[in-house]
TrEMBL record:
Annotated protein name in UniProt: MFS transporter
PROSITE patterns tied to this protein: MFS
GO molecular function, one term: transmembrane transporter activity
InterPro entries (UniProt xref): MFS, MFS_dom, MFS_trans_sf
Gene Ontology CC, one term: plasma membrane
Lineage, opening ranks: Bacteria, Bacillati, Actinomycetota, Actinomycetes, Pseudonocardiales
TM annotation in the entry: 20-42, 54-74, 86-105, 111-129, 150-170, 176-195, 238-260, 272-291, 303-323, 329-347, 359-383, 395-416
Organism: Amycolatopsis taiwanensis
Topological type in the membrane: Multi-pass membrane protein
Length: 442
């Protein structure tokens, strides 16, 4: 009976996992769908607005230029003002911009709506990541950020059928309106009802859990309230180091998007087969993210986890060009392993960022890392396309390049080992089994 009561008590004092994270993941799944749904609308926009190929590319890419504007202010505002209020405002603005895309009639109007969508969404991710840092001690952050990153596979699985159903029974205008209205109707209500800036402000949190979160963060040498500055973020060498790593990983992801869809189509022929097998890599990625994040928190060795995963991604991407479409099961295995390796490093990476980034650079620094890193997503396709032209339209050279990019990221991560070890030893943070810290705090 005592053991059962103890287990129930531990579960009741882990509301930070069951309240905060589901809302954050839900919000960013919708955010990600609103960002990418233009790919489903482009064939219809081409006919209705008579868009050229260049205009279609600009309509897709203009989002990222807007996305850069609020990256650094996003983390700063969440830290210095209120993450709850800041994200609520951004959700309203992004919802209006997303729905406005469905009300456009000219190319100029469409570009403006997509640019403003990027501006509004740009401040959301660093603010959400700042919120996670406030609610989870370092010993739990690999798992917390890993769960947050589940938005990628979830959105990839949900986006296509969700958009397809709307386009089947309505048109691209309704797709933008319906998918843009979701965060305003559902996400905003959930966000305002559940999330608070700090554990101290959450009435639904038990006193034991609140004490554990705050005591753990203080024991790890981290103040409960950050007061960062823009200058500290821009002048921090470690922030730029992380930004370079993140840029390389985002470029490396292009290796998957350039090679695998085309080979998958050739290997499995029918749209039905392609649709079914394309889900498997996303499921594998979700499992890998959680496993790596959990392992890093339990065993420590965040750098080892990151470098191993990135190294595996480098080998898979570099060798992918040697696989022909005739080897369809090998194609599928490579796609599963490559997709998993491409994002499973995410949890330990952002946990390490929160540990090594100076307190004065914390909020703005996270925005800078994410913002600069996303430039890799913008420039990667150009580099990949240029290498493909050099290779006569093939992807072998492109894959080697993107594999090398992942390898370079792994080496840069390895250089952080001594710094992270020193930081964790100084603060007395070790690899602790889940629940140990909570048990000892009571």
């Amino acid at each position: 009976m005592t053991e059962r009561t103890s287990s129930f008590r531990r579960l009741s004092e882990m509301k930070r996992w069951t309240y905060i994270l589901p809302v954050i993941v839900f919000i960013y799944v919708i955010c990600y769908i609103d960002r990418t749904n233009i790919s489903f609308a482009l064939p219809h926009l081409k006919d209705d607005m008579h868009l050229t190929g260049a205009q279609q590319g600009l309509a897709s890419g203009i989002f990222f230029w807007g996305y850069l504007l609020l990256q650094i202010p996003g983390g700063y505002m969440a830290e210095r003002w209120s993450a709850k209020r800041w994200i609520a405002i951004l959700m309203v603005l992004w919802s209006v911009a997303a729905m406005a895309s469905g009300l456009t009639h000219t190319f100029g109007q469409l570009i403006l709506a997509r640019f403003l969508l990027g501006v509004a969404e740009g401040g959301v991710q660093p603010a959400l990541m700042t919120t996670i840092r406030s609610w989870f001690p370092f010993a739990e952050r690999s798992r917390a950020y890993a769960i947050f990153k589940l938005y990628t596979p979830i959105a990839a699985i949900v986006a296509a059928p969700f958009s397809g159903i709307i386009l089947t029974y309505a048109d691209w205008r309704w797709m933008f309106v319906i998918q843009g209205g979701a965060p305003l109707i559902i996400g905003l209500i959930a966000w305002l009802a559940v999330v608070r800036d700090t554990p101290a402000k959450a009435g639904w949190l038990s006193q034991n859990e609140r004490n554990y979160i705050e005591r753990s963060r203080l024991d790890e040498g981290e103040p409960l309230k950050h007061r960062g500055t823009f200058k500290a973020a821009f002048t921090s060498k470690i922030v730029w180091h992380f930004a370079l790593v993140y840029t390389l990983t985002q470029m490396g992801l292009l290796g998957l998007t350039l090679w695998m869809p085309s080979v998958l189509k050739k290997a499995f022929h029918t749209d039905m087969q392609v649709g079914l097998v394309a889900i498997l890599p996303q499921i594998a990625a979700g499992i890998a993210i959680i496993m790596i994040g959990r392992s890093a928190d339990r065993r420590g060795g965040h750098v080892a986890h990151m470098s191993t995963v990135l190294g595996a991604g480098a080998v898979i991407l570099a060798g992918a060009g040697l696989i022909s479409a005739d080897q369809k099961w090998l194609v599928l295995i490579a796609m599963i392993l490559g997709t998993a390796a491409s994002i499973a490093w995410y949890g330990p990476f952002w946990a390490t960022v929160t540990k090594l980034t100076p307190v004065a650079a914390a909020g703005a620094g996270m925005g800078l890392i994410n913002g600069v890193g996303n430039l890799g997503s913008f420039f990667g396709p150009y580099v990949g396309g240029w290498l493909s032209d050099l290779n006569g339209g093939g992807y072998a050279l492109t894959q080697v390049f993107f594999g090398a990019v992942f390898g370079a990221a792994a080496l840069l991560v390895l250089s952080l080992r001594k710094k992270l070890r020193a930081a964790t030893e100084l603060a007395g943070v070790g690899a602790r089994p889940a629940g140990t810290a909570e048990a000892s705090s009571r």
